[in-house]
Amino acid sequence: MRTRAAVIGALAGLAALAVVGALGTAPAAHAGNPAAAGGREGVPAFGHVFLVVGENTTYDKVDPASAPYLASTLRSQGAWLTDYYAATHWSQANYMALVTGGFTDCDQHGKGVVCHRDVDNLFQRLDGAGLSWKVWLESGTAKCDTGSGGTCTSTEPCPLTGFYTTGNPPVLLDGIEGPGGVWSATTPSAECLANDVPAGTATDGMARFDAALASGDVPRFNMVLPNGCEDGEANCKPLNDKIRQFDAFLAREVPKILASPAFGDDGVLVVTYDEDMRPGGLAPKNGLASGGHVVCVIVSPMLRPGTYGGAAGHYSLLRTIQDGFGLDGYLGHAADVAPIAGVWQQK
């Protein structure tokens, strides 16, 4: 396994590749409606995308014994990335890195909605391209929830104070949460209320999401955030095993995603973790891979299943999503790395 410094250097070295694209050709300009122009830099055009994020788990803790569904079933079906690193510590900073290409010192310290800011982001880019999106919060208690935080419930109270104000990017973005781009603690925007939503209730967890999957009525981009028990952050009954809890969530929900009429021949599922277990404490603010070695697996009919090396991370994933949807103008550090391109079938 390479050291963190080596991976940071490798990711930084991908900046030159990012300029010309992973296949050695300059990315083409996309005229007209970006919604119809997905696919570039060796990344195919994406249909519906599902990004499922777990919490605080180091790569070498995820194996067939600890996480049989993720490390055996999904690994055999998808592209398993062996050299994938989170952006930084703590959780909030990584969620923001995934959708903005960066983070602040406030994010690094997980201070919640006080960190909100006006920054360009994936959701606004999707809006501009006419592409729909939702963030699905398991057992959430409110739409565009900027206040209740740790009151989310599952089989027992959510153990994370403020989880849905630190691990929920839309409420931290002025241009999404705020009417007219002005952040409001009391009157969120209609868009945020419509798109940042509970995936179910305290008793049925993911029922609304599951129903949308069954009908195929899901948006083009879906960020799926398990609650504080099932995301692997805290030990909870009845399993009392953080890694197995997230694995059980995946074993229950991923087959529904893959079977959805929306997934089809061009659907993409990504499962990753926000960061590792923080053995070294708070990571430096700079450096593209300071959040530790974590699992990332991609499942899609459009890729070649297998195990893949090569430095990658949250910014690489953001660039790949932008490429798959044809969203011009790479966000933040997504402009400094190459996409995850070598896993796809080439036509």
Compact summary:
The chain is α/β, with parallel strands linked by helices.
Structure description:
The protein has 347 residues and is α/β, with parallel strands linked by helices. It has a single domain, classed as Alkaline Phosphatase, subunit A, CATH 3.40.720. It contains 12 helices and 10 strands. The protein has an 8-stranded mixed sheet, sandwiched between helices. A two-stranded parallel ribbon has the order 3-10. Helix 4 packs parallel to helix 12. Residues 13-36 and 150-161 have low confidence and may be disordered.
Write a concise keyword list for the protein shown above:
10 strands, Alkaline Phosphatase, subunit A, two-stranded parallel ribbon, eight-stranded mixed β-sheet, 12 helices, 347 residues, single chain
What order do the SSEs take from the amino end to the carboxyl end, as H and E?
A: HHEHEEHHHEHHHEHEHEEEEH
CATH fold description: Alkaline Phosphatase, subunit A
Assigned CATH class: Alpha Beta
Report how far apart the termini are: 33 Å
Structural class by helix and strand composition: alpha/beta
Number of strands: 10
User: Any idea what the radius of gyration is?
Assistant: 18 Å
> Regions with pLDDT < 50 over 5+ consecutive residues?
13-36, 150-161
Largest sheet at a glance?
A: 8 strands, mixed
Overall shape: it is globular
What number of structural domains do the residues give?
Answer: 1
How many helices does DSSP assign?
A: 12
Describe the strand arrangement of the main beta sheet, using strand numbers.
5-4-6-1-7-8-2-9
CATH architectural group: 3-Layer(aba) Sandwich
Estimated helix fraction? 25-40%
Integer average pLDDT: 86
